[in-house]
Amino acid sequence: MYFDKDLLTQSSELRKKWEDEVKKTVATSSDQKERWSTVSDLEINRIYGPEDIKDMDFARDIGYPGQFPYLRGNQVTGYRGRYWTFRMFAGMGSAKDTNERWHMLLKHGQTGLSTAFDFPTLMGYDTGDPKARGECGKCGVAIDTLEDFMQLVEGIPLDNQFNQGGGRE
Fold it and tell me: pLDDT digit of tens for each residue in the chain (169 aa)?
């Protein structure tokens, strides 16, 4: 990214002023926690400005809507041309149970589906793994194998026609 030197200087000065205000506020009421991070444990700064992205490559790191790396969404017109998909969130028990639920939802007019995976599946563990003990069957669907996934989506139209005529992506 290219930012004019004056803009970066101005931004740095505004950030300093803002940080001074934060220090005053935090002195009287502390943050809710010491460190903020993503689920991947990447630290999250309190605020971001032009100086944080001055070394970014626009095409590689940001791009336009509908273009790699899809930071600005996967639709070329953003959500002006197609709305967000409103989906029924379903997933409980086995892949077969969730597949049956999906078929019932589609039969009753649902046009978009999402699933809730159980915690071990989300973390990459199989149902039988000792680290998954006590977490299977509490919420979401367990998917341990490719066969489980194939059973989950059996008979579900996964092509583009599924998202047309009512689906909102």
Answer: 778 999 999 999 999 999 999 888 877 777 788 899 988 889 999 899 999 999 999 889 988 988 999 888 888 887 777 776 666 667 778 899 999 999 998 899 887 788 889 888 888 888 889 988 888 767 889 899 999 999 999 999 887 544 444 443 4
- Print the domain residue range for 52: 5-56
Residue found under tokens 């605020």: 47
In the chain, the largest separation of any two C-alpha atoms, in whole Å, equals 61
Residue 158 lies in a domain: yes
What is the amino acid identity at position 87? R
24: which 2 tokens?
Answer: 């005053």
Rounded-to-integer distance, Cα 124 and Cα 143, Å? 9
* Cα(150)–Cα(30) distance, integer angstroms: 49
Contact 45, 15 (CB under 8 A): no
pTM: 0.50
| In a domain? residue 66 | no
